[in-house]
Design goal:
InterPro entries: ABC_BtuC-like, ABC_transptr_permease_BtuC. By secondary structure, this protein is mainly α. The protein has 15 helices and no strands. The protein is 78% helix and 0% strand. The two termini are 25 Å apart.
Length: 332
């Protein structure tokens, strides 16, 4: 009966998510230190001119909005993949230390290899994220892996890695200036160059994730069922986990660590579309894009013309959600 009720909800949820994202994107282009009427924004998107409003929309807000949407989609899908493969409802690229590891890797590149091209930021963040996730898993495995223990180990690793990043930032203050965006958890000031830097990785990762949803469905059923259905469990789990880390790394390379997006969004997507990843994954991408873009709008408006780091707003919403979810799992 539940499955039957979900069938009409899936297309409705996707249509509603597309409409909501479209409205939020328009609001992101219109609202900020100075507001621009919605009709004027639509006109400037069709026919840019030499006005100040056109400069604000085309040069400042449009790339920033697209970066926020792509990063939110990547983090939402990353969390969904990690939760599906590990069967851990607390899995999240921020909680598992992936985002902190990626940010540290970018910081090390900027400080010690300043001549490195920006195109290497995503691969570097991927390596840093993988190493941080392996460290968290090793720590949890030493006392027995459970969803809650893995999450706690990931939080500890994230704080440890963040402390290392802060130490390097203090010791090499002048050199570290170029990596502040990788540590800020913000989309302020993002430009077209940074968008084009991350877009190929992100779009490729999202496409591969969509193609791999049938395998994620099988892996979510457990190792025994997966083997019985002919999957190479270890290989497929590693590939999908790596894809989740790649999406998180691409997001970190352009907006910095923004925790809890990959925790909240997958639960919302599954609540609306059910456990089938063929439907919940595209919904998670849409919801993640809408969530992070909406948070960025709020970050601009709370104390305008000053801006609040978007990571602080997301953490304010995500931390209570994490505590409630952890308590619920701890009672089981």
């Amino acid at each position: 009966m539940n499955a039957l009720r979900l069938i009409p909800l899936r297309p409705a949820a996707l249509v509603l998510a597309v409409a909501t994202l479209s409205l939020i994107l328009l609001c992101s282009l219109a609202l900020g230190a100075t507001d621009i009427p919605f009709g004027r924004v639509l006109e400037l998107l069709r026919r840019p001119d030499d006005s100040t409003d056109s400069l604000v929309v085309q040069t400042l807000r449009l790339p920033r909005t697209l970066v926020a949407a792509l990063a939110g989609a990547g983090l939402g899908v990353s969390g969904l993949l990690l939760q599906g493969v590990t069967r851990n409802p607390l899995a999240d690229p921020g909680i598992l230390g992936v985002e902190a590891g990626g940010a540290l890797a970018i910081l090390l590149m900027v400080v010690f290899f300043p001549a490195s091209p920006a195109v290497l930021f995503v691969p570097a963040a991927f390596v840093g994220g993988v190493l941080a996730a392996l460290l968290a898993y090793s720590a949890a495995r030493s006392v027995g892996v459970t969803p809650l223990r893995l999450a706690l180990a990931g939080v500890a690793v994230a704080y440890l890695v963040s402390a290392v990043s802060r130490s390097i930032q203090l010791l090499f203050e002048d050199r570290a200036q170029g990596a502040l965006f990788a540590l800020s958890g913000s989309v302020a000031g993002r430009n077209w160059d940074q968008l084009f830097q991350v877009a190929p990785w992100m779009l490729l990762g999202l496409l591969l994730a969509l193609l791999l949803t049938p395998r994620v469905n099988v892996l979510a059923l457990g190792d025994d069922v997966s083997r019985g259905l002919g999957l190479h469990t270890g290989r497929d789990s590693a590939a999908i986990t790596g894809l989740g880390v790649l999406l998180a790394a691409a997001s970190v390379s352009v907006v910095g660590p923004v925790g809890f997006v990959g925790l909240i969004v997958p639960h919302a997507a599954r609540a609306l579309a059910g456990p089938d990843h063929r439907f919940s994954l595209p919904l998670a991408a849409l919801l993640g894009a809408a969530f992070l873009t909406a948070a960025d709008i709020a970050a601009r408006l709370i104390d305008r013309p000053a801006e609040t780091p978007v990571g602080l707003l997301v953490a304010a919403a995500g931390a209570p959600f994490f505590v409630l979810l952890a308590r619920r799992i701890g009672r089981k």
